[in-house]
TrEMBL record:
One of its GO terms (molecular function) is metal ion binding. InterPro entries: BRCT_dom (IPR001357), BRCT_dom_sf (IPR036420), DisA/LigA_HHH (IPR041663), DNA_ligase (IPR001679), DNA_ligase_AS (IPR018239), DNA_ligase_CS (IPR033136), DNAligase_adenylation (IPR013839), DNAligase_N (IPR013840). The gene is ligA. The lineage of its organism: Bacteria, Pseudomonadati, Pseudomonadota, Alphaproteobacteria, Hyphomicrobiales. Keywords: DNA damage, DNA repair, DNA replication, Ligase, Magnesium, Manganese, Metal-binding, NAD, Zinc. This is DNA ligase. Residues 640-713 form the BRCT domain. Belongs to the NAD-dependent DNA ligase family. LigA subfamily. One of its GO terms (biological process) is DNA replication. DNA ligase that catalyzes the formation of phosphodiester linkages between 5'-phosphoryl and 3'-hydroxyl groups in double-stranded DNA using NAD as a coenzyme and as the energy source for the reaction. It is essential for DNA replication and repair of damaged DNA. Its cofactor is Mg(2+); Mn(2+). NAD(+) binds at residues 42-46, 91-92, 125, 148, 184, 300, 324. It comes from Paenochrobactrum gallinarii.
Amino acid sequence: MSEISFDQMSEQDAALELERLAKLIAYHDERYHGKDQPEISDADYDALKRRNEAIEKLYPQLIRADSPSRKIGSVPAAGFTQVTHARAMLSLDNAFSDEDVGDFVGSVYRFLGRLPDNSIAFTAEPKIDGLSLSLRYEGRKLVTAATRGDGTTGENVTANILTIKEIPQTLPASAPDIVEVRGEVYMAKSDFLALNEQMAAEGKQTYVNPRNTAAGSLRQLDPKVTASRKLRFFAYACGEMSVMPAQTQSGMVTLFQEWGFCTNPLTKRLTSIEAIIAHYNHIGLERAQLDYDIDGVVYKVDDLKLQERLGFRSRSPRWAIAHKFPAEQATTILRGIDIQVGRTGVLTPVARLTPITVGGVVVTNATLHNEDYIKGIGQKGEPLREGRDIRIGDTVIVQRAGDVIPQIVDVVLSERPSDSVPFEFEHQCPVCKSHAVREEGEAAWRCTGGLICEAQAVERIRHFVSRNAFDIEGLGEKQVEFFFHAEDKNLKIRTPADIFTLEKRQSQSLLKKLEHIEGFGAVSVKKLYAAINERREIALSRFLFGLGIRHVGEVSAKRIARGYGSYQAFAESVKAAQAPREGVKGDKGNEAWQELTNIEGIGQIVAEAIVEFYHEPHNIEVLDALLAEVTPLDEAAPVASGSPVEGKVIVFTGSLEKMSRDEAKAMADRYGAKVAGSVSKKTDLVVAGPGAGSKLAKAQELGIEVIDEDAWFVLVGEA
Ligand code: IVH
């Protein structure tokens, strides 16, 4: 269709043209996001949007309710139901060097206590760069297939999985009644290339890499589309099983094969660190020849009983690790450096780059960490990159490793423009203009704007709604920005409580405004409200993490939640807590302070940050408003009730002989007990090994029950 030029355009023409563009852009949005099959190039799409905006500028009175310029982000893929995993799907810790692998193997031996060298076997297999999937069979029939999602709940993609030939839909009679097979869905490199060739031949946009294509193919609402893409599957782990049909990881993999699954042929069972590293190197050499992308090698403790003893940290198992291949690098030009403000005020320099493909992914931004990093100074003052600084205009080496944020690792000095100047890091917040400070021992400059800094406030809300905190779907980065800066006071979200009052602040007319202006559409507005209302009751740990208290990460939040059990108990105690006075010898703070720091992993720094947070009147105001809307749920102990030590506070002291200190803690955790670092009136039980000293004496003085390691095993029923 020929396009009318602007100067010939009457108001009527303009109205018609805006209508045409709105429809056309909506159509291409749907092709791109909804169907994963764009028809026009990104550049052509951008040109349409620019034309729309230019006309809107000339005739602001004609801006349509459904204008493409008013849309935020893409519509989330609707239509998949959620599946709660019977057993969480966790991620893996990473090792980047042989030394890290040695540390991992060492930690397994240490955790399990005294075992002779080379007595623990490990499996080593490629880490497939795909998407993890959990397949659930009941009565030997495939009943659900779910993506990993956030690890606890994923998307139900069963209809799509049924189209994958490599996945058996029934299991042989010998398989247990309930079986969960976990593994990786991926697209072979050859199938990916063929698909792209076909797309190009049809004049369609090609795909970026096999992983994203596999992801897009799996998340199709129409299983016919999934069926038309060749997806494959490697089985490598199990989830829930009604009976364990094997004793070892390698035995399990053999069974998977017998049941008809593909398993990776490069899987090996090995016992020494040297053999493990040799296999890693071997797989590294094979890597380019393989018909699928891999990004490392996964090592797992072979014995499933030992796996169980080793258990999990918050997000990953202690019995496995991913040994990553070295990162991929590319060179490009550094166009500019922006300063980003984090929720605690940290100023992070971000590199804006001429777009470049690094290992199959287009990179436009990379982190520059902090001021010293740009200057070529390391954390301990040592020179980085032999002291080379990084300047705007430089040719830089960008590195991307796995899912981590890309970084600039070096500059090519020979390419440096002759007129370049060193970068000057302004010691001022780019948003609220407050001055920045750099605390001793810290690399970061921090905006001192605190509660007045809008950038920090936005980041705090983004953190609050993020996946591992309140996890409110529909409040992404753009939506948070929109609500934060909304002019209408009934649309504004300035503090967490505002999120929960949004719905009741809406008059019908405002609701209409939101539906249209925001491009949310009536359905999405309803969905957003539903997502918000679902979080009016929330796990205490998520609540605490969401507050964004400095130094309180997910792990500390969990520990605090377990330690206090209820929000009331926590808040009252923390408000009463007094830290030890500086310079006063022997001052240990008051009892509430002791209670806080007795929690495993909560040291002086974290405790101080928490107490400080609760001493700031504004924070209390914000919290009270939030608590009027939201109820943090008491944290239940994770173990089945009836454990004899459930809810008890236990101190381990002296040397332990049958288990390591870490295993003791993990065991207590498993049985619902709390482990404390020091003995106080609150201690219920002390487990003392040989050589116990002052803690034992204190326990005796306070009349607390003391048992030895053997009695501990008897007590928890593991003797
Ligand atoms: S084992 C409890 N084995 O890597 C951990 N994971 O970074 C069970 N992955 O989410 C995972 N290849 O999607 C395992 N051979 C392999 C793997 C593998 C790829 C993925 C998986 C997992 C992620 C963790």
